[in-house]
Structures are given as C-alpha cells and as structure tokens.
Amino acid sequence: LGTLTCQNTPAIITFDAHGGSIAPFLTFHTNSEDCITNTIMIDLKNLVKDQIMTEIVRGVKTESGWKVLIVDHEALRMISSCMRMFDLTDNGITIVEDICKSRQPMVDLDAVYLMKPTHANVELVRKDFAGRKKYACAHIFFIDVAPDDVLQGLAHADLKPFVRTASELNLAFVPMESQVFSLDAPDGLYQYYSPYSLGTDASVVAAKLASVCGALGEAPVVRYSGSSARCATLGKLVQDRLERLMQYDDIMQQSARTKKSQLLILDRNFDMLSPLVHELTYQAAAYDLLDIEDNTYTYRYEDTQGRTQSKNVVLGDRDPIWEEFKHSHITQVFKGVSARFKEFTAANQDDGKEGGKFGTKELRTMMKNLPQHQEKMAKFSLHLDLADKIMKGFTEAVERATMAEQNMCMCVESHMSIRTNTPAHTHARTHIHARMHSHTLIHTLPRTSERVCWSCVRTGDPGMRPQGRGSGAQEAQGFDWRAL
C-alpha cells in the first residue's frame, strides 16, 4: 500500500497495479511562476464516510426516523474501515445485518441495502419481499455501477412495488488509512503472475480503479507501461470505465475539462526489489512478527493492583500514538514513545510521579497515582509492549534474513563475518529498512569488514565513512544504485 498525497492542479495520479492491493500516489503540481506548491491532504476515510452519511444514512428519510442497514461482505469491509457503530445508531440506523444470513422480519422499518451490483445480491433482496415481506420497503444502493441486466432484476414483480430508491455510488474500494486504500484482492499477485493461475478478470480491477477516481472527482488521462501487455489491457479497460462514469457525473466532466490529471499504470516489474526485503516500519513489523488479526492485538499488562490482565485493542487512527509512529522505523518507536511518556509525566508531576527514569514498575505507579489518566497510560503500556515484542521477534527470526536481503538487492555476496559491536553495524541496524526508491540500502564494501548505509555516505555522515583502505571510500561515494 502506498501514500496518497494531493497538492494543487493539474494532477498526476499514479497506481502501482500489481494485482493485489493497489498503491495510490496522487500529486497535484502547481504551474505558478513562483513555483510555490500548496499541499492539500485528501482524507479518503472521511471522504467515504461523508458520502455514506450524506447519501445513505441521512439521505434516506423514513416516517419513524429509523431504518435497518443490510450489507454484503464488500460493503461491510468498506464501512468498518471508516465508521463506528455509534456513527450509524446516532443517525437512525437500528441494526446492521448481513444480507447472506437469516434475519428477523422488521415489517415496520425501511430496509437500506448497501451491496455489490450482482445477480445474487438482487435475488436475496427479492426474497426479502417475496410472500410475507420482512421490511416496509427497500432503498437499494450499489457500491459500483450496476450492469443493465442487474438493474432489470429490480423490476421483478415481487420486488418492484417496494423499491423506493435505487442508486449507484463510487465506493468499490476499502479506505485502509486516510491516505491509503486497497482493492481488497489478496490473491491478485498469484492470479496475475503464477503460471498455475487461471487468470484474473481485469475488468474487475479496472472498475475498482475507476471507482476510486470517481470518489475523488477525477477524470484522468490514462497512461500505462508500453512494455507490459497486462498494463495495456488494464489501461484500456480503465479508460472505458471512466468514460462510462463521466456520462453521469458532472464533477468528473468538469475535472476532465480543467485539471488534466494523469493515471499511470505500472507493472510489478517496475520495482522488483521491494517484495524481497522486510519492511521494518512499526506497522509493517507488527503485522509481520505479531499475531494481529483484523487490526486487533491481544496483549497482557498489569493493572493498578499488580494483577496480570489481557486486553484486545484495535490498532487504528483512533490511537494517536499508533498514528504518529506507525510509519517510523521500529528503532525510533522506543525513543519516540519514551519521549512522549516523559512529556506526559512532566506535565502531570504535581499529580503523580516525580521526574526521572521509567519502566514497568514506574508505569504501574503512575497508573495508581493518576487514575484520571489511566486510558492514556494504557496506551503507553500497549506500545511499549508492542515495540518490545517486535524487537525480540526481529532479533530471533528476521535480523539475519535482512542481511541476506540486502545482499540480494545490491547484487553482491558477502562471506565475511560482521562485528556486531562496531558503530557502523549498530548504525546499519537502524537503517535496515531498505527500499530502492529511498536509497537507504546497506551494502558490504569489498575492502572493508563493516556495512555502511548509502544514504549516510551520500549525505556525508562522518560516522559512516568506510573504514577500509585503498579505494573503498571512493568506491562507496561513487556508487550508483541506478546501474543495477
């Protein structure tokens, strides 16, 4: 998954379409004479939430003011990523139910359906009103453009008299974070590239990409890698889909006339190295090394009485510490959380603990002395526990593998032993997060017994000059990773 950044028009929209999750990179460049670019961050979660609230939750008016929301799996994933239950109940939704499961009749309430436009879903809606109806009437919202034959299913004699609303939305994606979305295709990489795959329906991927553009109000010019048949096929399908959406969307039509944005579709071979290396940012390492399911982590802690308790916590945008450090290197998390904790204790010294060092015992003492801040203290306890377990998992299972990964990325093989107590090795561990596009690659010089971080060599860090003799330093400074 990538980062979504937006600045002023005109725009360049780039998607790394490798079949699974699709990484968006949106950059709007200003052509002003002073070359000053104002940054506008588009929050995808809020964008999707606002559309759901406006079009569905508040948009559907009922006599009683209450209604039932019925969703399929895809719609539930999308809603769960950006909304909480009380957002719905506070606005007239009595209950959220699965369209595929058996449901109790609520004949006095209107039913609001949010689902994919498929024959199977329309058939399930029809059954709700065949014979003894389950609801007063139906308001149907499709998360994507519905084919004509699917819309014709709404005209069935069992269903037609009860349909009050039929609408299409551009919500066929999951907003994972404020700047990140997914097309929810975990098997996409296998389907696209495995010789044993039966192939994938590129039109589904194209429809979801077009849905993202529609939600953003963009009508980009589609460009793709000419050396890739997959990109060419997908690019043409996306263009056809965008043209269909523009026929009914005034905002996209205006965008096509004024912004002149571009959608760049690239194949996986544009960056072959990223899948080979471990991502050691806080978020990636946590999901890689710990048992986290559906963003939920179970950890043990000691309460104010010293008793061991277990608790399930959701790692998401409602946790300010997680939001601040999730894209930081794991070695920076310890320092960052410690610094935030010291700031917190300094601001509350009059109520609890005096300044100084802190640890598990001090944290428990603080929780006893500051009961009004127990929620905040629990956050610190959670992230100290997370960071500690990640570092243990890294040391036990990943550390040696990362060295081999760096050698593969740099196309070299090292047979020499590494002195783990050297400053260079310690520095290298803090830069083990290796990405070709960020230049933070660790490489073993042929004439030295130490590893260096190329970004530090390039920036002139005096503590990271190669220590070998001869032309080692010159070779490091003259190294060009693009030659690979």
Q: Number of DSSP strands? A: 16
Estimate the global geometry from the Cα principal axes: globular
Specify the number of helices.
Answer: 17
Rounded to the nearest angstrom, the radius of gyration is: 27 Å
Q: Which stretches are low in confidence, meaning pLDDT under 50 for 5 or more residues running?
A: 1-39, 416-484
Q: Helicity, in percent?
A: 25-40%
Alpha-carbon distance between the two ends: 24 Å
Strand proportion, as a percent range, falls in: 15-25%
User: Biggest β-sheet: count, sense, barrel?
Assistant: 5 strands, parallel
Strand order of the largest sheet: 4-3-5-6-7
Structural classification? alpha/beta
Mean pLDDT: 75
Element layout with pairings:
Blueprint lengths: L10 E7 L4 E7 L15 H14 L9 E5 L1 H10 L2 H5 L3 E6 L11 E6 L3 H11 L8 E5 L5 H5 L10 E6 L5 E4 L2 E3 L5 H6 L8 H15 L4 E4 L4 H18 L3 H9 L3 E5 L15 H8 L2 E2 L2 E7 L5 E7 L5 H6 L4 H18 L12 H10 L4 H37 L12 H8 L11 E3 L6 E3 H6 L12 H6 L7
Parallel strand pairs: 1-11, 3-4, 3-5, 5-6, 6-7, 10-11
Antiparallel strand pairs: 1-2, 8-9, 12-13, 13-14, 15-16
Helix pairs in contact: 7-8, 10-14, 12-14, 13-14
Question: Which terms would index this structure?
Answer:
four-stranded mixed sheet, alpha/beta, globular, about 475 residues, 17 helices, five-stranded parallel sheet, disordered C terminus
Short description:
This protein has 484 residues and is α/β, with parallel strands linked by helices. The protein is 40% helix and 17% strand.
